[in-house]
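Co-fold these.
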Amino acid sequence: QVQLVESGGGVVQPGRSLRLSCAGAGFSFSSYAIHWVRQTPGKGLEWVALISYDGSTKYYTDSVKGRFTISRDNSKNTVYLQMNSLRVEDTAVYYCARDGAFDIWGQGTMVMVSS
Amino acid sequence: QAVVTQEPSLTVSPGGTVTLTCGSSTGAVTSGHYPHWFQQKPGQAPRTLIYDTSNKHSWTPARFSGSLLGGKAALTLSGAQPDDESEYYCLLSYSGARVFGGGTYLTVL
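Predicted complex below.
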């Protein structure tokens, strides 16, 4: 079954770190760039980051530059989002999605940053 | 970073036609922005309706179409159904980085 599955969300204090994972299955994972997108409860979608199929190129939204790092391990069919120096405003559901037609989305993983 | 603008809300009558638009603070939206359109129902992940301006997925109802109109990306719904009541988001590409619009809530009434 073609799918993306996120994991690693949870509750964390401001200033701490968290690593999210996005595992792909059912398709040639190493051939696709992958995005992270987040959504604050009750609010709109925010694009967060993109990593190319081979990990050589990365893009970030301004609000996470210097704090978040996207990476991938194609041997594990997994993309990661390392989130450091977390802020209350990073609280959101984090989705990963396949690049191109955005035809595959995960179910999302919730990150809550709270003291 | 660019700002992408959408109508906050629109209303369409059942069976009617409505056009949602997606503008860019950097100027006219072109095919080079690879406009995407997403539908999102409460509690669900977004679902892509249109990609690269006007391409549809196999699950995209025929009543939805994408285009460029007056310097903006446009999503046109022809023959609105009650099930089309939803939030709609556009996404534009800026040399790799992406930016979502704020979303349009479409009411079918």
